[in-house]
Amino acid sequence: MTDRSRLHMAIQKSGRLAEQSRDLLKSAGLKIQAHKGQLNARATNFPLDLMLVRDDDIPTFVADGVCELGIVGLNVLEEYALGQPQVGVEVIARLGFGRCALKLAAPAGQAFALADLEGSRIATSYPRLTRRFLDEQGIAAEVVTMRGAVELAPRLGIANYVCDLVSTGQTLEANGLEPVLTVLDSEAVLVRTAKTIDPDRAAQLDQLTTRIDGVIATAESKYIVLNAPESALPDISRILPGAEAPTVVPLVGRQGHVAVQAVCQESVFWETLEQLKKAGASAILVMPIEKMML
Ligand code: ATP
Ligand code: ZN
To answer: CA-based, 20 to 30 A from 163: which of 19, 170, 182, 229?
Structure first.
C-alpha cells in the first residue's frame, strides 16, 4: 500500500536518466534509502517515496496521481500526451540533463529535401511526434512504429528514413545515417500531476520544488567579485552574464574605484573574464555558489 501521508515521485529505475535523477534529489538535500532490485526507495529526511520504474510508465503514474511528481524525458512525455484526450501531467521545470533530440535521419551522403519525405516510409519509436511533425509540414508519409533498433530499418528495407533520438549522432553514423531535421529538442523535466493534491502534500511539493529550483539555479551560477573604475560600471554590468543589479562598494583610499559583487546566473567563461578585464576590471574572482533559494 502506498503511504498517503508522503509525497511520491516516479523516476527511471535504470537507464540514461536514473543516476542524474537521484543526484538531483541528493543535491536537494534528500537522503535516499534504496534496496537493490526494489521498486521503491524512500527519503529518510523528507516525506518522499520514490517509485523506480521504466521511463515509459512515468507519465501514466503521474497523470493517474499515483505519483504526485516525476522526472522524465520531454520526448517520452510529449509522445504520451499526444495520445491522451486530456493531459494530466504538467511540466514544472526543465532539468538540464538527459539532453537529446528527436531527429529525422536519411542515408548518409544522399541529397535531402523536405519534399523527399512525401510518400516515404519512416521508422520510429515515436509515432505520434513523428506524425505531428509530418502533419505540420503537410507531408503524407507512412510511419512505421518500431520498439527498438530503429536505425537498422533503412538497411533492412523496412523504411526509407528514421526518426530517432540522437545525442552525439554516433549510432546514426555507425548505421550509415545522418540527421537532416530536428523534430523535438529534449531534456529531462520535472513533472507534477494535474490532479488536485491535498494541502499537506501540496505544501511538501512546494518545499521540494523550491529546493530543486535552487539546485538548478546553482548549477550554472557563480558569484563574481571584481574591482573597477566607476566609469567602467555600465560596460561591466553589460558583460556580467545573467546578473541582476550588482552590488557596488567604494574602495577605501582609491578614489573613483569600486568593488563589484554579483551573482551570475549563466555560465561564466574565460572569454567573459577577458572581456571584463578589457572593460577595466581587475582582481576578478569567480566563486561557486553552494546553495541558493530564489
Ligand atoms: P527504460 O528501461 O526505462 O524504458 P529506455 O531504454 O527506454 O529505458 P534510456 O535509453 O535509458 O530509455 O533513455 C531514457 C531517456 O534518456 C530518453 O527518453 C531520453 O529522454 C534521454 N536520452 C538522452 N540521450 C539519449 C540518447 N542518446 N538516446 C536515447 N535517449 C536519450
Ligand atoms: Zn523506455
So the answer is: 19
pLDDT of residue 291: 87
pLDDT in tens, 83-106: 999 989 999 999 999 999 999 999
Question: In 3-state terms, what secondary structure has residue 283?
Answer: strand
Q: Does 93 lie in the same domain as 28?
A: yes
For 153, the domain range is 100-186
Query: Given pLDDT bands bounded at 50, 70 and 90, which one contains residue 219?
Result: confident
Q: How confident is the model at residue 1 (pLDDT cuts 50, 70, 90)?
A: low
Cβ neighbours of 126 (radius 10 Å): 23
Atom of ligand 1 nearest to the CA of 98: 23
Report pLDDT digits (tens) over 244-277: 789 999 999 999 999 999 999 888 889 999 999 9
Q: How many domains does the chain have?
A: 3
Query: Are 166 and 113 members of one domain?
Result: yes
Ligand 1 neighbours, Cβ below 6 Å, are: 12, 15-17, 54-56, 73, 75-76, 98, 100, 165, 167, 186
Nearest CA to ligand 1 atom 31: 100
Probe target for ligand 1 pocket from 100, 124, 168, 177, with the most ligand atoms within 8 Å of CB: 100
**N residues, the chain:** 294
Geometric angle at alpha carbon 286, from 283 and 290, rounded to 5°: 145
Quick one: 78 exposed, middle or buried, by C-beta within 10 A (0-12, 13-18, 19+)?
buried
What values do phi and psi take at 153, rounded to 5? -55, -45
Mean pLDDT of 214-239: 93
